[in-house]
Structure prediction request, 246 residues.
Amino acid sequence: MKRGLTVIAVLTVIAALAATGCVTQQPAAGWVNLFDGRTLNGWIQRGGQSKYSVRDSMIVGETVLNTPNSFLCTEREYGAFILEVEFQVDDDLNSGVQIRSQSLPGYKDGRVHGCQVEIDPSLKPYTGEPKNLLADGTPAPEGEPRAWTGGIYDEGRRGWLYDLSRNELARRAFRHGQWNHFRIEAIGDTIRTWINGVPAADLRDGLTPRGFIALQVHSGATAGLQVKFRNIRIHELAVGHLLDER
Prediction:
């Protein structure tokens, strides 16, 4: 009887906290590795014919001439999750990590589309729009690289959804020629990203609530450029998981 009263009391407290928004559902499962370090089991290539291989516990994507953007996609789809991945990219190669993406026969002959967390080494001077701003709101020096790694681009569909033109700290967080770390949270209609621990994008977008994850090799004019990925892991979440629990 005493045990029953205790359970009722606990449930009453939880219900009261939930009513005030203080409690949300907990993760549905723990961290799972998406890459076993040895094979490409669980992945499928879509789009172009860039080369993907496994070397030294890394997935290596390599450019091939005269082919469109290529994507190594998870066979499974994911909705609410936290994704972490480390990457290293040649300075002349654009890349990205697709989340909640799709390849549908009725959409542009199966073209991969969906939110991409940008990998943008960009050493070349940036002269486009919008202009990059410094932390104090003044324009960045003329000719500064774009450097939008961690921004969110809607591949094959709407274009830029959240650039980093107003986030100087995130633009400077990318490390050329070194390993970098993404943390990506996709929960409900909120998508947030971090590059090497620095907050980058914070987007509200619910157009596609579920889809595959993919590693992009962008088309280019130079063959043999590489992007490497390792330590790819995901934590699937129940709807309503507390965003700030890290």
About this structure: Residues 1-28, 241-246 have pLDDT under 50 and may be disordered. Residues 28-237 form a domain with the Jelly Rolls fold (CATH 2.60.120.560). The radius of gyration is 20 Å. The CA atoms of residues 192 and 202 lie 4 Å apart.
